[in-house]
UniProtKB/TrEMBL annotation:
A matching Pfam family: Lipase_GDSL_2
Keyword terms, alphabetized: Hydrolase
Species of provenance: Flagellimonas maritima
Protein name in the entry: Sialate O-acetylesterase
InterPro entries named among the record's database cross-references: Ester_Hydrolysis_Enzymes, SGNH_hydro, SGNH_hydro_sf
Gene name linked to the record: siaE
Molecular function per GO: phosphatidylcholine lysophospholipase activity; sialate O-acetylesterase activity
Membrane-spanning parts: none
Length: 217
């Protein structure tokens, strides 16, 4: 009976380890970055869900900085919090750009829950490095999730307020630049209506460049 109990415990533990969301993807991201990262250079980390992961020319757009892209597609704010060491802290960045909340809203999480998790992330990052600069990138509008725009707007207001009330934390508004007179610019997206094409990322660049290496964008 005792043997059966320990065997069951082992199998349960093994299965729990196997189903940790994004563990395999995060390990792959880390292995790739560790092979090219220069720990002697100041580092800026971009992380979050697929809108960051698919921004493949980040380093080319900011050639004067060492940029690390640890975006992992489909992630939510709680997933990022789980992997803060692997995706951010292990690289001791002077600045980090975070894009999370998009998938949270789609998963029907309430803005206050998302903000609470983001506050936890910020607390951990600032505890490890009080001088770190954190930029919260607003949720973006999209064709496929346009019906949820009210919820995204509420989340963005909360993110902005969080940044205003927290030292060394800033809010980058990419929502507004993707609209024309309150209507979505539909030519910014690939076929799935969710992810952006090069034109969309060019608009993001125009916003984000104002927050690079600055304390007062």
């Amino acid at each position: 009976m005792r043997y059966f109990f320990f065997f069951f415990l082992f199998i349960t533990t093994f299965q729990a380890q196997e189903i940790v969301p994004f563990a395999k993807e995060v390990n792959e991201i880390k292995a790739k970055i560790d092979s090219i990262w220069d720990n002697k250079k100041e580092t800026i980390v971009f992380t979050g869900s697929s809108s960051i992961r698919m921004w493949r020319n980040l380093q080319d757009q900011f050639p004067e900085d060492q940029i690390i892209n640890t975006g992992f597609g489909g992630s939510q704010t709680s997933d990022l919090k789980l992997f803060l060491n692997e995706l951010i802290l292990d690289y001791n960045p002077s600045q980090v750009f975070i894009y999370e909340g998009d998938n949270d809203i789609f998963a029907k999480k309430r803005p206050n829950v998302i903000i609470e998790t983001m506050q936890g992330i910020i607390h951990i990052l600032k505890e490890r490095n009080p001088k770190i600069k954190i930029v919260l990138i607003s949720a973006k509008p999209s064709i496929s999730r346009w019906h949820l725009r009210g919820r995204y707007k509420r989340l963005n207001k909360r993110l902005n307020k969080l940044a205003l009330n927290t030292p060394r934390v800033f809010y980058a508004d990419v929502w507004t630049t993707m609209l024309h007179r309150r209507k979505l610019k539909k030519d910014l997206f690939i076929e799935d209506g969710l992810h952006m094409n090069a034109k969309g990322y060019d608009l993001w660049y125009e916003v984000i460049k104002n927050y690079m290496n600055t304390t007062n964008p």
